Amino acid sequence: MTRVGVVGASGLAGGELIRLITQHPDLELTFLGGSSNIGRRPAELHPGLRLDLGLTVQPVTEEIAGQVDAVLLATPAPVSAELAALLADRVPAVLDLSGAFRIRTPELHDRWYPDVKRRTDLADRFVYGVPELVGDQMADAALISLPGCYATSMTLALAPLTLGLGLNLKTVVVDGKSGSSGGGLHLRTADLHPLRNGAIAPYAPVGHRHAAEVGDFLERGKRGGVGRLSMSAYGVSHVRGLLTSSYVFTDESVDQRELQRAYLRFYKDHRFVRVRRNTETLIPVPDPQAVLGSNYCDVTVMHDEDGERIVVLAALDNLVKGAAGQAVQALNIRFGLPEETGLTMQPVMPA
Amino acid sequence: MTRVGVVGASGLAGGELIRLITQHPDLELTFLGGSSNIGRRPAELHPGLRLDLGLTVQPVTEEIAGQVDAVLLATPAPVSAELAALLADRVPAVLDLSGAFRIRTPELHDRWYPDVKRRTDLADRFVYGVPELVGDQMADAALISLPGCYATSMTLALAPLTLGLGLNLKTVVVDGKSGSSGGGLHLRTADLHPLRNGAIAPYAPVGHRHAAEVGDFLERGKRGGVGRLSMSAYGVSHVRGLLTSSYVFTDESVDQRELQRAYLRFYKDHRFVRVRRNTETLIPVPDPQAVLGSNYCDVTVMHDEDGERIVVLAALDNLVKGAAGQAVQALNIRFGLPEETGLTMQPVMPA
Amino acid sequence: MTRVGVVGASGLAGGELIRLITQHPDLELTFLGGSSNIGRRPAELHPGLRLDLGLTVQPVTEEIAGQVDAVLLATPAPVSAELAALLADRVPAVLDLSGAFRIRTPELHDRWYPDVKRRTDLADRFVYGVPELVGDQMADAALISLPGCYATSMTLALAPLTLGLGLNLKTVVVDGKSGSSGGGLHLRTADLHPLRNGAIAPYAPVGHRHAAEVGDFLERGKRGGVGRLSMSAYGVSHVRGLLTSSYVFTDESVDQRELQRAYLRFYKDHRFVRVRRNTETLIPVPDPQAVLGSNYCDVTVMHDEDGERIVVLAALDNLVKGAAGQAVQALNIRFGLPEETGLTMQPVMPA
Amino acid sequence: MTRVGVVGASGLAGGELIRLITQHPDLELTFLGGSSNIGRRPAELHPGLRLDLGLTVQPVTEEIAGQVDAVLLATPAPVSAELAALLADRVPAVLDLSGAFRIRTPELHDRWYPDVKRRTDLADRFVYGVPELVGDQMADAALISLPGCYATSMTLALAPLTLGLGLNLKTVVVDGKSGSSGGGLHLRTADLHPLRNGAIAPYAPVGHRHAAEVGDFLERGKRGGVGRLSMSAYGVSHVRGLLTSSYVFTDESVDQRELQRAYLRFYKDHRFVRVRRNTETLIPVPDPQAVLGSNYCDVTVMHDEDGERIVVLAALDNLVKGAAGQAVQALNIRFGLPEETGLTMQPVMPA
């Protein structure tokens, strides 16, 4: 059994990590950390999880080194930056779910995360990316940075074009739509149910930092490339799950059949990515409700004759494949377990 | 491996059975039956379940006897009545999720299910009830009838009073609130999203047959008893999960402390019933969102000084503990597996 | 034009008052009061109301006497108790939407509102009730206390039984279901969208003070009477509108036909109460979505043979007939206008 | 009083027309037409509208000419094409809410509406467009075609750029998000509440015909122009209201300040278009919940430095400004009434 600590245990991603780890056959939850709710049990903080784990939330000190083989940081980026410095080289594996170490290029990091001071030497050691693309690097990494929920979706949507087909994407316009759990449980008036329900909230119509994260990552990739990449993000009226729509303009010629084949080929060894046709089932897909609670990302690619563009849709559960599930997937790879261990639950639908 | 067939594979309960059986370590899905959608694969009918099981929906004939050790009927009551007659004595175990065999008393059955003609000899052989109460009878039953979703909730709420404390419940008023999945996927205008969303729909303000089912069952129980039992049912604006509120008037004296103890004692060996205090966590419980996707039923009992009454709230996922999960629980018992096998998934919350 | 001031202008009821008063042909909004958001314009506080009224939120002093003919207090009960003392006898009409003056019996008030110290002489002068029942007293009242949202619904549901038919109601069990706007816009974790959406939240399973308010009021009424009256309240997954279900047990004999007639007769001169049959339209009614945005209260009465009980359902928009609309209705009566002036908007459905 | 007939009285737009016309001071509803539900009263078809108008749904014949001054067609496009031929020159004003006469260019019409055969001479006589842009032509038009809900939003979003600033828009990518009422009340499995709630449904990821409609219209406009215009449409988890996001690429230089000024100037005489800043109120705007039930269209324009693009967001209530309200607005203009008559209701929010 690999002993795992979760820090940021009170938050939504923290709760989801507890859910997944306690269901996992080869992981044992041995530490719960946080800066608030010290001394409280998970059941008080996560209404669904009435588990008696014998654990309460504790402050993080370097002494946890003896209790864990891996630590998952589901903390705000500034906290992750500090904790990574504390725990690196003391704990065999540190996996960070925040934005602290996602953008490698220093100037880009400073622009999008001006409040996050991180050690440069640490930043250089982090392996960042979706396990489908950088799994081999994760296998022996001491420090792993997981992509943001939107970034995971966008990367899985665009990688088959740039890395698979080697296309140069001149202009990419991403429209992201997310449920309210993407924003966490912060006390903001606009997030109260009366104002958030029924909303289409343009909360980041320009300047979402996940676009920078994806651009920075794809730039480092070998083939094709991405020119102008912009993103807008909206909150819509459900809780869990997101969809990104990537509208892609390229000067290169490619048709529907080639696209479909390329996506199937690119993901043929990756069970968590399901390449689907828009009309293959009762409801149009991809739709995040069809992946709810699971680690799947559903992807659909279409060539739009009228718009002379490629449309790539990708849906995932922001708390699973977009956060906790992907972290466990990385942890599996890091500790030599089959990638899907403990992550084989099917979507709960309808919900 | 126990070989299982699911009939009514296109419906919501059918889909949920497929989800649970394919995740179950000791069950193998070997047959999918139905009267519509013949030849279609599960993935076409259940958008979340993109599984390649090598099965398509087939008509049910007596020849399935060779392919299965157990059949689960997630069919309308009239169809279940027919199929039970066909399959009884041909298949080792037939479990029916419909109302066809729930009410034992013939006059009561005929009143509440006038359209369901069933063989009396068959009806007498069915073991009916929640596994927590009749598990020992299920262990060697060839025919099992599972309670309705509301009935499961009401039975688990009231049994500790009548069977545990032996109270005589003079008047019980049940108010049931359910999400839209309780109504299945039938093409009715009132169930279209624009008319169903935001609704509090009094769809069965009087005369819900689950009340008759529970009354009939509790009458056969040994201690205490239930006098006047009435129920009203409402559709509220979410998809999955229900809550029943049982308002109980009794002439016998009992206080909050005795009630709480009695419930804890009654369910101490039953992991799927979680006896909870209303304010024990972040949100008031029981709330069906805290059991979503799981086989739990959360129960809270309160003595209301002002109203001179007992209030018992019970929440469950109508498609899991109220249908497919409970059926798998019964199947486990029937085939000698630990009751919780394949049902240990934690709730997916928030969702 | 009657000049009106609204205090508590930042809240949901305050916003609804602004909406209704600015649409009203005979009322002029001349003052906006509050203790927070001083200096802010309505458009900043109420996203839908982008109105240029030339008003900003101001503290309330006795000097507003010169600016208004009536003041509407949409403030918390303790604040209303203070402001009523300040404004009574200085402003021709003070209408309070809070609970400060709803319960007349002093001991009952102190029990249910221990934190609300009110002047007894003032309390005795307030006219309390729904305009349908106490409109004649409102016509020349200087001080008016409007019922709570649930209390309005329960009173309109029960009055035809006690005051109309003169029945003695031995036991009344009320189950109230409300959208999230009933709780206002307070920063509570349980009211954040991720935790409140999809919920059936038993937030007041025992001891809701609206029951005390209704009991106190009906006790003062002349005929019939109410014995044991208890209430439980639930938050369900929409924003606006509530339904109360009153389950009534009486020893007196009455059938469906008498009940229906009695309700039609009782409300024949009251256009805002619509007596409806459960199945008269596309969806089961009463359903609060069918009164959304309007001042209607839809009422359905049924005799339940099985339960030997009467079931009365009443639905209203908690921010209109349950708050701001009812206050404007009272204001109309107070200032000699036809009761429905400015309140003739039809429901916005579906929404 | 102008006598008005509504055809397609059973549908959602039909119901909304009834709501608005019965609240209108200068319009009288004198005819309700349809092909189904003959003989039924509006209250049976529209649960919120319990009105006694003395009207039932009737088949449309040329004899209605004597009963109405104007007819509003809220019918499917093929039906509108037929009825327009029947009623033109018999009724002083025919206003069509369908797509039958929206696209003027014959080849484009035939491509996007292959099932709609219309008389060419009639098509040429229709005035099409949003009243803000073609109001002067509507003033004496006998035949008026109202834009689709998305098209209204897109046109109001883009016109200040092309017609106001005279920009040439090289590439426009539109992402439209709509509630479920946009799809009407058709019995489709995917529109049942269990499958539609919680969804982000990519129902028209490529090839939405509203894009063709807007392109055709803007082409006929005088200044600037639109190059490549493509659209994708999604159903999100609420009922009423839509948002379009127009991502615009142009080679011409323009900054945030110029854009904001241009939009304010362009709409300064048009009260139904509210030019708003994204962060001006409690929630990010434009958000359709802030226009619910009203005839407003909220518009926000932003220059995105990173993406070298212009982002224009426009939100409206698809049943009001996107259908019935806009039709009444056109009717007002046609009959010489102030444009806003009967349309001054403020948004119902939160709902």
Task: Explain how this protein is built.
The structure is a homotetramer of 351-residue chains. Chain A has 351 residues and is of the alpha/beta class. Chain A has two domains: 2-125, NAD(P)-binding Rossmann-like Domain (Rossmann fold); 150-316, Dihydrodipicolinate Reductase, domain 2. Helix content of chain A is 30%, strand content 23%. Chain A is built from eleven helices and 13 strands. The first copy, chain A, has helices at residues 12-22, 42-45, 77-87, 106-112, 120-125, 131-138, 149-164, 193-196, 209-220, 256-266, 320-334, and strands at residues 2-7, 27-33, 70-73, 93-96, 127-128, 143-145, 168-178, 201-204, 225-235, 242-249, 273-275, 297-304, 309-316. In chain A, strands 8-9-7-10-13-12-11 form a seven-stranded mixed sheet. In chain A, helix 1 crosses helix 11, helix 6 (131-138) runs parallel beside helix 11 and helix 7 (149-164) runs parallel beside helix 9. Chain A is globular, with a radius of gyration of 19 Å. At the A-D interface, strand 7, strand 8, strand 9, strand 10 and strand 12 of A face strand 7, strand 8, strand 9, strand 10 and strand 12 of D.
Short description:
With 351 residues, chain A is of the alpha/beta class. The first copy, chain A, has helices at residues 12-22, 42-45, 77-87, 106-112, 120-125, 131-138, 149-164, 193-196, 209-220, 256-266, 320-334, and strands at 2-7, 27-33, 70-73, 93-96, 127-128, 143-145, 168-178, 201-204, 225-235, 242-249, 273-275, 297-304, 309-316. In chain A, 64% of the residues are buried.
